[in-house]
Amino acid sequence: MTSVEQFAYGWITPTLALAMSILGCLLGTFLTSRSRSSNGGSRARWLTLSALSIGGTGTWVPHFMAMLGVDVPGTDVRYDIPITALGLGIAVVVYCLGLYIVGWGRPSVWKILPAGLFTGIGLTAVYATGPLSMRVAATIAYDAHTLLVAAGAAIVGAIMTLWCACVVRGTAAMLCASVIMALAVCGTHYLVMAALRVQLAPSGAGVEGVTLFTMLAPVCVAACLVLAGLAYSTVGFTVRQDTAGEEALLRRARDMYPIATLSRAAAHRRRQREGDRGQTAVP
To answer: Is residue 254 pLDDT above 70, yes or no?
Structure first.
């Protein structure tokens, strides 16, 4: 067996992965908080955007960043693009379903636990797509016991993530929750990678595929665009909500103005009549 190097570039890749995960999870938590004041299709839209943020930029992009530090001594490492992209699709779908289960109605333990179990199993598949997409002159396998531990960690992390996203309130609490969610995401990734076992092939055959650095620029650009779009959605919704509230107050004031004018006129006439009666009563 050949050891798999997880930190070929030192602590740069895990630091980038953690930072991206915190940003994605924080934005997803804010988007989920917006869904609490919505109903019907509007709530579904906010939960879907939250799943895109947490599953895409909060889970898959950090997984991609962490894979940049993977190296297998003795062979070139290349990647299959469709399988790499498959992980993104699975991450968004499982978080979308998990948030739909928890986000509709009042969050409860009986909804968070099964949703976390389903999401955690899906996340294990997401983290497994990284090694499965690797193209090396070797045979890749997993250690069953380590993989089971990683799956358990993924389930626990998914339960924590769904609870934080749907229950936590307040900016400071959301920030702390995002850090916890990001640590769970990155920890589960490295647990899955620790289960990886590589046996080099005897012949030095060529390896097909592309390097992760080839996909780095498109992934980073796409992640930035997604983060900017989701952030704009959050800010735009807040501005529209404030504007709608101000317009409602103005409409209410306009509706009350004629009533207030009539009341003032009636009070003025009443005071005049009382004054006239008082003057008449004086001899």
So the answer is: no
